[in-house]
Amino acid sequence: MKKTSKLLTAGLLVLSMLAFAGCGNKQEAPAGNEAGQQAEQQAKVYVVGTNPTFAPFESQDDNGNIVGFDIDLMEAIAADQGIEIKVESLEFDALIMALGNGSIDIIASGMTITPERLEQVDFTDSYYTAGLNIAVAEENTTINGIDDLKGKVLAAQIGTTGALMCQQLVDDGIAKEAKLLADINICMLDLQNGACDAVINDIPVTNDYIKANPGVVKVVGENFNAEEYGFAVSKEAPELLAKLNAGLANVIANGTYDNLYAKYFTEAAAE
Ligand code: ARG
């Protein structure tokens, strides 16, 4: 690079830093040799990992496309922040490791913000408040809540907060067995086949399952464990985290979030 252009670059850099300091967290203007970096940034496609077995947050449509609230919300955030994303399907219990080894950049998978996970990854602000509930087969009359799980076989998706709860109930000497299965649809089938007695899972997902498959399973007892969902990124990616948080705040402020919420969580949503 020639000396003059170096000087120019330095000058522009100082100017852009001043501008940056002056006007809060608005996007930085491209300056000098940052143009190259900018192009690189534009070319970067952030890989979003999800486990699409969790409607209405993420599932696969008849053509194999990954769809759902998390996907639409991530896309809205990405559009707002001018970043490009690509969604990939993974096992739920492989997501955090995938973030750790860099094979994905973002987790968007109805993932609850927990103290244990916060030791390994960073989460955005909460974008959804959920919790757990208990489902049993429609014809079951003996389990009416958490107090009726003594000696029972419980099922949950492996690696989830529901799985932790099942395991806890076994460890406490209450439940007989915790079956930790690959996804919640398998758990629900086990319930219908009598291979387990109760499924512990996230409230909105179990409710969605019941709407989509009426008359086979039902919710009993109280909801428990209020949980907040966040998008996760590597602890090494604070800029990406800041972008996701800024984008989330913007799509909440401009009504996009509410539109998506209405699309997925109203009566009309579960066709
Ligand atoms: N919210 C629960 C958790 O974080 C379950 C999430 C499962 N998500 C999924 N896409 N299968 O453990």
What does this protein look like?
With 271 residues, the chain is α/β, with parallel strands linked by helices. It is built from 10 helices and 12 strands. β2 (59-60) and β3 form a beta hairpin. The chain has a 5-stranded mixed sheet with strand order 4-1-5-12-6. 35% of the residues are buried. The chain has 2 domains: 45-127 and 230-270, D-Maltodextrin-Binding Protein, domain 2, CATH 3.40.190; 131-227, D-Maltodextrin-Binding Protein, domain 2. Helix content is 41%, strand content 22%. It starts with a helix and ends in a 6-residue tail after the last helix. Arginine (ARG) is lined by residues 50-51, 53-54, 58, 92, 109-112, 157, 160-161, 202, 227.
Task: Summarize this structure as a short list of keywords or feature phrases.
about 270 residues; alpha/beta; D-Maltodextrin-Binding Protein, domain 2; 5-stranded mixed β-sheet; binds arginine
Write a short abstract of this structure:
The chain has helices at residues 3-22, 34-43, 69-81, 95-100, 115-118, 161-171, 184-193, 203-212, 238-253, 256-265, and strands at residues 45-50, 59-60, 66-67, 84-89, 106-107, 122-123, 128-137, 153-157, 177-181, 198-202, 217-229, 232-233.
Give the arrangement of secondary structure elements.
Layout: H1 3-22, H2 34-43, E1 45-50, E2 59-60, E3 66-67, H3 69-81, E4 84-89, H4 95-100, E5 106-107, H5 115-118, E6 122-123, E7 128-137, E8 153-157, H6 161-171, E9 177-181, H7 184-193, E10 198-202, H8 203-212, E11 217-229, E12 232-233, H9 238-253, H10 256-265
Parallel strand pairs: 1-4, 1-5, 8-9, 8-10
Antiparallel strand pairs: 2-3, 5-12, 6-12, 7-10, 7-11
Bound molecules: arginine (ARG).
Residues 50-51, 53-54, 58, 92, 109-112, 157, 160-161, 202, 227 line the site of arginine.
